[in-house]
């Protein structure tokens, strides 16, 4: 298992490095969703698994608001495909 601290927009790993990426309650604290999605796609091996969660704010409390959440999901959908 590999644990490290890195800029999600510029991961210090070779392409196709990981079989599995967990990103739990992190992305709501970031921006540049397109860059992050591209990097996850780059370092994840074909057929690998990506597990992403985010805290969504429906009432203005900390978390990602619906507009930013939509942008984030669109960025990941562009890289990884899938349904709406």
Q: How many structural domains in the coordinates?
A: 1
Count, helices: 2
Q: List SSEs in N-to-C order.
A: EHEH
- Biggest sheet features: 2 strands, parallel
- Beta-strand percent range: 15-25%
Order of strands side by side in the largest beta sheet? Answer: 1-2
Low-confidence blocks of residues: none
Roughly how many Å apart are the termini? Answer: 32 Å
Could you explain how this protein is built, in words?
The protein is an alpha+beta fold. It has one domain. The chain has helices spanning 33-43, 66-80, and strands at residues 18-24, 44-53. Strands 1-2 form a two-stranded parallel sheet. Helix 1 (33-43) links the parallel strand 1 (18-24) and strand 2. The termini are far apart.
Short description:
The protein has 84 residues and is an alpha+beta fold. Helix content is 31%, strand content 20%. Helix 1 packs parallel to helix 2.
Task: Summarize the topology.
Blueprint: E1 18-24, H1 33-43, E2 44-53, H2 66-80
Parallel strand pairs: 1-2
Helix pairs in contact: 1-2
Give descriptors for this structure.
globular, alpha+beta, 2 strands, single chain, two-stranded parallel ribbon
């Amino acid at each position: 298992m590999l644990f490290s601290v890195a800029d999600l927009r510029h991961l210090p790993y070779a392409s196709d490095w990981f079989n599995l990426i967990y990103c739990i309650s992190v992305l709501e604290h970031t921006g540049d969703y397109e860059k992050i999605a591209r990097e996850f796609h780059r370092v994840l091996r074909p057929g690998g698994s990506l597990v992403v969660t985010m805290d969504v704010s429906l009432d203005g409390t900390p978390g990602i608001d619906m507009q930013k959440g939509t942008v984030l999901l669109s960025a990941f959908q562009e890289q990884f495909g899938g349904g709406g």
